[in-house]
Amino acid sequence: MLEExxxxxxxxxxxxxxxxxxxxxxxxxxxxxxxxxxxxxxVRVLVDTDRPGTLLGYYSLSAAQxxxxxxxxxxQQRLPRYPVPCFRLxxxxxxxxxxxxxxxxxxxxxxVERCLEARKHVAAYALIVxxxxxxxxxxxxxxxxxxxxxxxxxxxxSLGA
Length: 161
Ligand SMILES: CC(C)(COP(=O)(O)OP(=O)(O)OC[C@H]1O[C@@H](n2cnc3c(N)ncnc32)[C@H](O)[C@@H]1OP(=O)(O)O)[C@@H](O)C(=O)NCCC(=O)NCCS
Prior knowledge:
Blueprint: E1 2-6, H1 22-37, E2 42-48, E3 51-66, H2 73-78, E4 84-94, H3 103-118, E5 126-130, H4 134-142, E6 146-147, E7 154-158
The protein binds coenzyme A.
């Protein structure tokens, strides 16, 4: 059974994780624990409970904000002129051995669900993400993320009214 868990260095083998994007692997291996402890991000991983040490994928979430001017014109009209509160999907990756099996979709769904849960308590308009390349950008657009006006590699997904 697939399960989403908080990253735990005592249980999860971070060194074996290989997504195909070195920066995303290094982040998991070298920085994710430290940044979680410092309250800068929350990192969640996907495991198969039959092999609970093996990481199939991960994502990280933090609080963020975006200038309203970066959003589409219609959205801007509905929002105040000051920076808009958001969540940031800082990193998301699936181990290369498991690409194309729907795990990326599952991780985005988990992340959005966490955001919807959190915004019951703290307001946030959208989920934003910094795509690490054209392929990642296409992946997020596939899920309805919209490129920001000045920086199309940053994309946002409205979390609903
Ligand atoms: C991008 C990544 C997360 C996709 O994960 P995955 O498990 O292979 O993707 P899925 O099998 O869940 O694909 C789900 C859907 O996204 C689509 N998709 C996958 N990668 C895509 C891409 N690069 N561009 C456009 N669509 C893509 C699939 O076709 C599929 O569409 P469907 O549901 O209509 O059939 C994965 O390839 C990865 O980790 N890549 C390296 C790291 C990376 O680029 N991360 C992005 C964050 S910056």
